[in-house]
């Protein structure tokens, strides 16, 4: 069946993901290959000290993204997009969206990027004997309670961004288990919120006299492959204001971007993992057994089908690299050169490989925002060097690439060195890996492990979400998600692997030791911001 036939017969599957800087849509065919795409660029706003996106910007972004997808379909195939086999929605995980009974948002959306929940996260971690990160929904909720925010009593529904979008499109208050594991810890046996923790939380806040219990306001937990409702007439109009898209399309459980990254890299089996490097970065390792103890820098979440995963999440990754590349662009343009940004990135990334393995002594701190793994509530991007360091373009770029994955290195050392976690395959994806080999080689040196990148790495989260939607309607009876991905999507493709040299590993180790000592400089910059 041609791509045009697939679309005309309503057999294409759509995945949409709301990322930090782009909203992307990917349409796939019966072989799970992309056949059309759409996108919208947006940015978060810092309002009253908190990172947010407005409801208006969310829907304008989603609608524009879908409109560009419709245009791509029309441009390529000369037909209108009217019906689909299935739809899935994903978004940046965690955060806080609280609504009243009239479906009105009570306070502006608080994203994963906010680090104002320290007191709540610490108290809940102690109460649950489980690491509760700053960005998790339960941390935001309890921080609002601690801080005496008046809106808490009016909460009727507490959602993440993807759960909110799904709710508006289907009327269903549900979310995928991977996304749910970023709201409240999951019991791997029941594939639901941990009931003991639910009861502990309800007991903790009972003296406040709120009219709700925790389960009343959280979305229902679903696993990949379960039905999660259908696109309503209202939802179809929301997604496609032009009115061409039909209602009644099945929708799979919404997911967080961590879950879609696992699907997109075929990393849902035990002893597999993936590393996503974009605006933020995170590694996901599917565990064979529980860790020996809770760690503040390691989150326990799940795959889209509910298997426990050790996650190291870093708030910062490529933003400072992007800022520096833009400076080089301005410099070239000031000298009369027309700049191709894609080629400029490639050139500078390739130049980094010519630098010294230890970056000549240079260090780069890419902290646009706070970084919980290294204990920083706020960020101050900076380059640090001493007079005797080798300050060259190659070392400068290599230091920035090292800095982008330095916090990942710190967190993953606990897994690989202390907990002796074993990994058969670790796959990278995201913008950091766009230039062939460079990002792979840097990350391989950081983790002292072979890193694979697939040709589909650039498809990213929206493709992963489309795969989860395809699993809903195209999997065989009783076929596991891992088998579906192995047999119907990747068919043995494990990507291209890069193994680090001893010199590269030793160079990164030297860098990271200096980096950890230099964190005091970053801390001083934060403390003396005025």
UniProtKB/TrEMBL annotation:
Keywords attached to this entry: Kinase, Transferase
Record GO terms (molecular function): kinase activity
EC number from the UniProt entry: 2.7.1.-
Spell out the InterPro entries in the cross-references: ATPase_NBD (IPR043129), FGGY_C (IPR018485), FGGY_Carb_Kinase (IPR050406), FGGY_N (IPR018484)
Tell me where in this chain the Carbohydrate kinase FGGY N-terminal domain is found: 13-239
Output the CDD domains linked to this UniProt entry.
ASKHA_NBD_FGGY_BaXK-like
Can you give the residue ranges of the Carbohydrate kinase FGGY C-terminal domain?
Answer: 274-471
State the top-level EC class: transferase
Indicate yes or no for the key word Acyltransferase: no
PANTHER family with a match to the protein in the record: SUGAR KINASE, XYLULOSE KINASE
The family assignment reads:
Belongs to the FGGY kinase family.
**Protein name, UniProt field:** FGGY-family carbohydrate kinase
